[in-house]
Amino acid sequence: MIWFARPVFLPLILLFPLYIFLRKSGTISPFSLPLTLGNWGAPAFGWKPFFLNLASGVCVFLLSVSFFLGVFAAADFSVLEKTEYYSGTSLPVVFILDVSPSMSAPDMNGETRFDAAKNGIASFVRSRPGGSFGLAALASDAAMLVPPTTDTETFLHRLDALRIGELGEGTAIGMGLAVAASHLQGAKNSPSFAVLLTDGENNAGGIHPATAASFFRSSGISLILAGLGRKGYSEISYEDPVSGMQYSGRFYSGFDETSLLDIAAAAGGIYVRAADPDSLASVFSTLDASVPETAVAWSENARRSLSFPCAVLSLCFAAAAWMLRFLLLGGGICL
Fold this sequence. Notes:
It contains nine helices and 13 strands.
């Protein structure tokens, strides 16, 4: 939606058709501003009439656009952008994503486990404007990359930048759960939620998954654990984000579902087998049903002024018209 903060200047636009009418009727003579730069007494510059007429027409067009943009700048041309405000944030959700090399296995209908998980997270977050989301990653180590925030753009930017191998080659499930629990304990909005997406069994880190899972039960944090991929051999390929080296080979996925079920049970949470994109979608459907929507409290239009860009463009068009007349028509500005 467009807006003029100083509409009193808009009637100046009528001066343009009025000037054209008076010109055509012969009431006034053409306006000219001589700015010719050349040698005194030098021969006049000549050009074929067709190009003279074309260049003259282009000059008139440029000056006309410059005039209208100048009026828009004076009237403070603005754009009104609708912004939604929320009565409060939703219950916080932290996604814990496995970034170990085995997540590069392309057994999710041709898509890697890692990409399928990232796409699912991104789609869910985009569908929940005003929601509070955090992002943690685990491999040999674990880290909270984005603490729970309502800044969706920051969350999605870090999610998109996340790479396999960023935290090593192991699978420290206990560490990943502990990192998420530490950021969700004592959350302002209770209860809170964590979603762990992994394809492996715990083989790294200094915290046992059962110990970390007990934090969830005692702190009122709901856990949804998704086991990604299938058991068996798979070709994997990924680029180490630290060294830049490319790794590839044949990988055997053991996929210990029993241990993942035990972790979910210790946390008092839910385990979902996600062997394909359809079953992975059910993970986010379960989350969607568990986390209430954030109510929209109100919306308002924020004004973004474009008067300065209009003024700059007006000067640019006027300068372009002068340069064209100087180079092809002997200089000056004429309407």
